[in-house]
Write a structure and sequence with these properties.
- The chain is of the alpha+beta class.
- The protein folds into 2 domains: 176 residues, no CATH class; 58 residues.
- It is 23% helix and 34% strand.
- Helix 3 packs antiparallel against helix 4, helix 3 packs parallel to helix 5 and helix 4 packs antiparallel against helix 5.
């Protein structure tokens, strides 16, 4: 959670074009674009409402990404050529062709805050053309910026083994993510695994039951089997990363306890 009370100061805008050469979605090395002025995304989606029992019974909102405007002092010709599928000829002239194939890209940048800066990435953007006004010079210089309309759509990526539709990511530096934060503009950072709160109560209780059993009361073969499963259960309590691992360890230990054979000697 951010500690900032306010945020301001857009800078360090980067563009990372989608790399379509591989079988999976990836991005090329980000390109730094100096001259950041403004980035203004507007959420896109629909709200559904259903009324019953004389009131709002259900509501749901879809997230279809954003439409946005990004304003820069100017975009380099090489970047514009790739965004819109235009050409740069032997004279170094940027040539707007009508059959160019626009290329999708990620937008990355940093926003300042009263406490800490934050860095963000919007994963899948497509630009639209907008004319740039040209005016004569008057008594003062009136700078004309490049304002680019964008459509930002979700991508599908795996988080904790499940496919999730993702639009953007935001990171603020802390004691655990220093390396990722410092290298944020070196490459597009995908979402990592999300920490999950694990319920260890059932396995802990079963381990406690196994711990009070007396080896002398049980057949050697079944007791050895139990101790092996108990060792695995204790390991799961320390290092399991999913609830499924804990549940399996608990089931195995319960079955091993039930399978104990009394020592009749």
């Amino acid at each position: 959670m951010s500690e900032n009370k306010v945020e301001f100061g857009l800078e360090q805008v980067h563009i990372a074009f989608l790399d379509e050469s591989g079988a999976t979605m990836d991005w090329e090395e980000p390109i730094a674009i100096p001259g950041a002025v403004r980035f203004a995304p507007s959420p896109q989606g629909n709200e559904s409402k259903f009324y019953a029992d004389n009131g709002l019974y259900y509501s749901g909102v879809t997230n279809d990404g954003y439409t946005a405007e990004i304003e820069m002092a100017r975009f380099p010709d090489t970047v514009l050529a790739r965004m819109f599928g235009w050409l740069i000829d032997d004279n170094g002239m940027l040539v707007e062709v009508t059959d160019g194939e626009p290329k999708e890209f990620a937008v990355m940048a940093q926003i300042e805050g009263d406490k800490k800066p934050r860095r963000f990435v919007y994963y899948k953007c497509k630009a639209a053309r907008r004319a740039k006004e040209r005016t004569t010079r008057g008594e003062s210089i009136d700078v004309k910026t490049d304002v680019m309309p964008l459509v930002i759509t979700p991508i599908t990526t795996k988080i904790n083994g499940e496919n999730k539709r993702v639009v953007k990511g935001t990171i603020e530096k802390n004691s655990l993510n220093n390396e990722v934060y410092e290298k944020f503009f070196d490459a597009v950072t995908r979402p990592n695994a999300i920490p999950v709160a694990l319920d260890k109560a059932a396995l802990t209780a079963t381990v406690a039951i196994a711990g009070v059993l007396d080896e002398n009361d049980w057949d050697d073969t079944s007791w050895i089997a139990l101790t092996n499963v108990l060792t695995a259960a204790n390991t799961a309590l320390l290092s399991a990363s999913t609830q499924r691992e804990l549940n399996e360890a608990n089931n195995n230990l319960q079955n091993a306890i039930l399978a104990l054979v009394p020592n009749l000697e």
